Cytochrome P450 (Xylaria multiplex), 527 residues
Amino acid sequence: MILSINLGGGTTGAFLTYGLLALTLYTIYQLAIAAKRNVAIRKLGGQRAYLISSNPITGTRLALRSLKHASQNKVAEMYDETFNSLPPESRHAYEHQFLPGSRTIETREPLHIKAILAGDFHSFGKGPGFHRIWSPFLGDSIFTTDGKLWHNSRSLIRPMFMTERISDLIIFERQIEKMISHIPPSGQTIDIMDLFFRMTLDVTTDFLLGESANSLDNPNSEFTFAFNDVLRQQIRLAVLRIFRPFDRLVSHAEYYRDIRKIEEFIMPYIQRTLAIPSAELEKLTKSDTESTFLHNLARFTQDPKVIRDQLIAVLLAGRDTTAATLSWTFYYLAAYPDKVDRLRAEVLEFVGEHGTPTYEILKNMKYLRYTIQETLRLNPAVPLNVLTISIMKEALADTVLPSTPGSPSIGVLKGDTVCYNPMSLHGRRDLYPPVSEKFADPSLFSPERWYSWQPRPWEYIPFNGGPRICPGQNFAMTEMAYCIVRMLQKYGRIEYRGDWHAQQDKMAVISRPALGVPVAFYEAQKN
Ligand code: HEM
């Protein structure tokens, strides 16, 4: 008994000694990495940004704080609090790290964003980590790739968004009219956000495949469910990857089931299109009425996997962003009856009560455009963005984020993560003119401000900027404008049916109203 206790004590002692030694060596190794990285940053002529966490203890505290704020739909508030607590010389950028080799820089500085997205574009990309996490769902599409692969996708997709193609509004008419037919009679409550998400799914599938998913009539189809669920699963798994390799212990079954269901829906369209003889396909793509995004893709590639990846990427890009922006627009309009009146007056002036909006008419409706722009200023649909230094580029180099008045340039090393934050950028009060009769407080919804104000370049970026600017911008603006016009032709009053002030911003890749948008519409008096 005594022998066994001694032996046990000896083993424990040795274990502790070796453990302590390993920890010391590991700490020395990490400090050496940190010192080497600091030298590399200085060599670049840059400095580090203000460091808010530098080790596993403060890093874990920060991660828990982020998770807590995310669960309370208070991510925007958390960022604002953090930025506003920085010292004056580093007010708009900071960094945090778990270990010295895993540095993340967060910025809301226009000059940094300009460098990341345009001036120093080739030094930044989505990176292999992003590709690894998202590729089961989005494959090697425009969203998950950099360099040549990304460039090929971009060239493939861009022609589909030419003005001539978008100016045919037949798809919007078809799906938006159907959506309006689902709105209950005057005075009855509806969550209009739910209808917007179904409508944009139907518009985007109609545009891509020539046939809609019909989620407006059948919201519970397997495809609709899978498409609604897959992003939730994707985010869950992306968060769990923080704990890799243990993330493998968590089931991925639902994620892969969702992907399978989406593919079961999309692949038959692809196979049918690939079976069309090339001469016939060529003829089809010239037709104004029958040509689809899919037909055009098939002219350039016969690889079903390439087509599958691009279709799913555009579907994801085009659906939630537009639905969320429409939801926020009606959330704001429901609180401002005078703005609804002004918007409706413009609708009646340009389109009339029964007229059909055309592309040119929509382009000329200023208050309508300002209403959408103002919504995207307050609630950019993609509120946060992440780019890592690309390791796919030959011109790969460590780089700097440029200095700004009063703040030094920030050295960025290969493998660092840089997050730029449109939500916090748009919230920077110092970038706006003083409040006046023409310029309401920046925290308020005021489309009127746009009559006498234009944001400076890189201070307003809801659609991103530079070579990776959203190719669907014109499509989205036209779709949203069409939808608002059609709704205000019919309805003259919108009443919010919830606690308007209790609304929160749910940020899960896309920012959407966390509590839905419960409203009642009232038909306008017929003239
Ligand atoms: C209000 C609506 C929309 C907003 C605010 C928006 C915003 C954005 C933003 C911020 C990005 C950059 C994302 C990133 O780099 O990770 C982006 C990329 C993209 N968007 Fe949009 N988008 C909207 C609608 C659409 C629509 C309707 C489509 C297509 C039907 C579309 C297609 C794309 C594609 C394909 C990309 C990837 C571009 C690239 O990486 O080169 N978007 N969008």
In short: The CA atoms of residues 179 and 195 lie 7 Å apart.
